[in-house]
Design goal:
alpha/beta; eight-stranded mixed β-sheet; four-stranded antiparallel β-sheet; 11 helices
Length: about 350
């Protein structure tokens, strides 16, 4: 079984050169909210980004920043009572809000697939891993048991699963964490998606297995030409795979730029604080720096900039109004009035 796909498109997402056909995924002004007895929680607030074919967008931020909810909105799987208030999500040239549920179910897996942080909660514990991969293949390719088994074995081999024939008959609990994640990747690839969303896929793994999973995703992307949305709270991990990075805080993107620019010249105080927490080889410190304060409750965000209560640069102007995401030069977008070249 072959896995060749369209060649990677090197056009940077979010630039004028990126045409509608070059964008595997485009999100414009996405808003997701959850009504509660105490008020409406703004889980995602005006998020926009593009990912071109063959490119990887890393989305980083602390827990509760809206990273995973953005991904679920792309798949139109926002849990109730939450709902997408407004915004447009395009997969290729198709607007997902225009699709009925039957059509959307065909999109999931076949055009956009997702792998999760903890495979034990995503895999069915009473079915063998091979059976689950074969079922995913059959869902998109047709009910041929023989071809489905052959395809599942080929997928297990492609993700470098040790002894694919043996592991085909294993249940999830019989596998290590790294093996389970490889099985999840194999299942996601069964439909040959245009877009792969990886939600914290390496968090529960040791650093050696993390590196192997990241290398595997990069290899498969080069082979199939798919776009990847890689979600993590760890900038160090994201730096190993992302072409571009979007930093989220309190439901908004507060900085977005090519990965080299974000890592080399971060312009938002929150991004700089995140980078400072990444361990460095050879650095000697008694303890790693931590970001002061706490992530604000979504129903009690501070006025103006949501990061102002934790930001050492914040003043009255920061608390007067929520800063827009503005281009500070070279396509480096920042939502901070203190950023060089930012909105004033």
């Amino acid at each position: 079984m072959t896995f060749g796909g369209a060649p990677a498109d090197g056009t940077a997402p979010g630039t004028g050169a990126a045409s509608a056909t070059a964008d595997a995924l485009r999100v414009d002004d996405l808003h997701v909210a959850f009504p509660t007895r105490d008020g409406v929680i703004r889980a995602v607030a005006g998020v926009s980004y593009r990912i071109a074919r063959g490119r990887t967008l890393g989305i980083v931020g602390e827990s509760g920043s809206g990273k995973s909810m953005t991904a679920l909105a792309v798949l139109r799987l926002v849990p109730r009572p939450g709902r997408i208030l407004e915004g447009t999500v395009r997969i290729g040239g198709d607007v997902i809000k225009d699709l009925d549920e039957r059509a959307m179910s065909r999109v999931r897996g076949a055009r956009v697939a997702m792998i999760f942080q903890e495979p034990m909660t995503a895999l069915n514990p009473v079915l063998t891993v091979g059976t689950q991969i074969a079922e995913a293949w059959s869902l998109h390719r047709g009910p041929d048991a023989g071809k489905a088994r052959e395809a599942a074995l080929a997928l297990l081999a492609r993700v470098r699963m040790p002894e694919p024939s043996r592991r085909y008959g294993d249940y999830p609990h019989q596998m290590s964490g790294g093996m389970r994640q490889r099985a999840m990747i194999a299942m996601a690839l069964a439909g040959r998606p245009e877009v792969l969303i990886a939600d914290e896929p390496t968090t529960a793994l040791d650093v050696t297995i993390q590196a192997q999973i990241i290398e595997l995703l990069a290899e498969i992307q080069a082979e199939m030409g798919m776009a990847i949305q890689f979600i993590s709270h760890n900038l160090g991990v994201v730096s190993e795979i992302a072409d571009d990075i979007a930093v989220m805080y309190a439901g908004r993107i507060v900085e977005r730029a090519p990965a080299a620019d974000i890592l080399g010249t971060p312009r938002h105080p929150y991004t700089r604080a995140l980078i400072a927490t990444v361990p460095r080889i050879g650095a000697r410190a008694r303890r790693l720096p931590a970001i002061g304060g706490q992530v604000p409750h979504p129903l009690a965000l501070p006025p103006g900039c949501a990061f102002s209560d934790r930001c050492p640069l914040a003043d009255a102007a920061c608390r007067a109004a929520e800063p827009p995401l503005a281009d500070t030069g070279g396509g480096h977008l920042v939502a901070c009035i203190k950023a060089e070249g930012g909105a004033r």
